Amino acid sequence: MTNRLEIDDVEDSGLVAGRIAYIKPTGSDEAHRLGLIPENIDLPAGVKLYVLHAEDGSVLGFTDGYASAYGAAVQNELTPVSLH
User: Fold this and answer.
1) 12 and 32 in contact (C-beta within 8 Å)?
2) Which of 16, 20, 33, 62 could serve as 51's disulfide partner, Cβ 3.0–4.6 Å?
C-alpha cells in the first residue's frame, strides 16, 4: 500500500490543475510586503490574515477569517488547500 497519489486519483478527487487555491495564514509584515495592506496602515499586533493564492502564487484575495477564505474558494469553484 502506498500513500502517494497518482494523477488519476487527483483528478478523481476534484483536485484538477488550475482549480486549487491555497489558504495561507499571514501576519501584518507579510501583508505589507505583498502589498495587500498599504504601508501607512498599521494593523493591531498579532492580527492574522488569511490570503487566498492561485496555484501560480498570485494573490486572489484576503480576509481576517479562515472560514471566509475557504468559502470564497469554494464559491469560485476552487479546491481550497491550507498552507502553514
Assistant:
1) no
2) 62
Q: Give the residue among 37, 35, 73, 38 at the shortest CA–CA distance from 53.
A: 73
pTM above 0.70, yes or no: yes
Note the pLDDT tens digit of each residue in 18-75: 689 999 999 988 889 888 888 898 888 888 999 999 999 999 999 999 999 999 999 9
Q: b/e map of 69-79 (b: 16 or more CB within 10 Å)?
A: bbebbeeeebe
C-alpha span between 50 and 65 (Å, rounded): 6
Q: What is the DSSP letter of 16?
A: -
With a CB cutoff of 8 Å and minimum separation 6, the contacts of 77 are 19
d(CA 71, CA 67): 6
